[in-house]
Design goal:
The chain is mainly β. Helices cover 0% and strands 44% of the residues.
Length: 103
């Protein structure tokens, strides 16, 4: 589970996208998006395309509401085939209360 406080934007959610055999996916020439159900959809930063490493940098509106959420990455390959990560289940995200006011 990825946990972040309400209003925080400093830390990114970092992931390595792997195929069903646990091998990192080469993201060169791919379109990648990250979706948090009901909250946001955006293009993550591809930190290391060859090794499938992506970072999701949050904006203030992404972490404005406390609660439990689910997310996933969607990769569209150069031949237009689509694969979703994780291959099974979802990324669990918890936005916790912040005592710092409305951030």
């Amino acid at each position: 589970m990825f946990t972040i406080k309400r209003g925080d934007t400093r830390y990114a959610l970092k992931a390595i996208l792997k195929d069903g055999d646990g091998i990192p996916v080469d993201l060169n020439n791919c379109d990648v998006s990250f979706i948090i159900k009901g909250v946001m959809e955006r293009t993550p930063y591809i930190h290391d395309a060859v090794n499938g490493e992506v970072w999701v940098v949050f904006h203030p509106e992404d972490t404005a509401n406390e609660g439990y959420y689910i997310g996933e990455f969607k990769v569209v390959y150069s031949d237009n085939r689509i694969e979703t990560f994780p291959n099974e289940g979802f990324i669990r995200i918890h936005i916790t209360e912040s005592l710092g006011g409305t951030n």
